[in-house]
Design a protein that fits this description.
alpha/beta, TIM Barrel, 23% helix, N-acetylglucosamine-6-phosphate deacetylase activity
């Protein structure tokens, strides 16, 4: 998840370390060329998924190369319009990172990234992650996403290393900066701000929340 993100949708990522990819060489320089191909025959590729904003730099043109290597390209931390998100899916993006969070919001005249969950343009609909902690998203928003594309719905925690720890302020290194993340219950915030810094919820809690809010059964959850 990074560093090829849109600085206007950086979340808790340090803007100073975000970059644009102009060629696949930039991606290799970031992740290591050896991590973008199988180490040995029959062995999986080390990098399984990359979250990036398709509208930044030349990333849109690089999606086919990323996908051809068996790496999941996930749209996230992005200002992509519906048209840009649709193009990304058409070029090989198969996932959306924590839908609704750190992206252009749904608008009735430009549905943004959420719009690709519809069947317009005859594109294959991508999978998408949903954080069901009750903090990142309203329960009704989660139901809307599930009803739009239930087969693509993936529960994720977005959990940080503070899961299970007592409430309090904990140091966190962000690039070359050190700041505190404040934990209060399941909510994590950057100190002295309203910026959500991941979550401290478990996957079981996410499943239980989804069951309560969606009205679906245990097998489907």
């Amino acid at each position: 998840e990074g560093p090829f993100l849109n600085p206007t949708k950086n979340g808790v990522h340090n803007i100073d370390v975000l970059i644009e990819a102009q060629s696949f060489t930039d991606i290799e320089a970031c992740y290591g060329a050896e991590n973008l191909r199988p180490q040995r025959e029959g062995k999986p590729i080390p990098v399984k998924m990359i979250t990036a904003a398709p509208e930044r730099g030349q990333m849109m043109k690089l999606i086919p190369e990323i996908a051809s290597r068996g790496i999941i390209y996930s749209v996230g931390h992005s200002e992509a319009t519906y048209e840009e998100a649709s193009e990304a899916v058409g070029r090989g993006a198969t996932m959306i990172t924590h839908l609704f969070n750190a992206m252009r919001p749904l608008h009735h005249r430009n549905p943004g990234i959420f719009g690709v969950l519809g069947k317009a343009e005859n594109l294959a609909r991508p999978y998408f992650g949903i954080i069901s902690d009750g903090i990142h998203l309203h329960p009704t928003t989660i139901k809307i996403a599930f009803n739009a594309h239930p087969d693509g719905f993936i529960l994720v925690t977005d959990a940080m290393h503070l899961v299970g720890l007592p409430d309090g302020a904990y140091p966190w290194t962000n690039g070359e900066q050190t700041c505190n993340i404040v934990k209060k219950g399941s909510k994590l915030l950057l100190e002295n701000s309203d910026t959500i810094a991941g979550s401290s919820i478990t996957l079981l809690e996410c499943v239980n929340n989804f069951l309560e809010w969606s009205g679906t059964g245990i097998p489907q959850a």
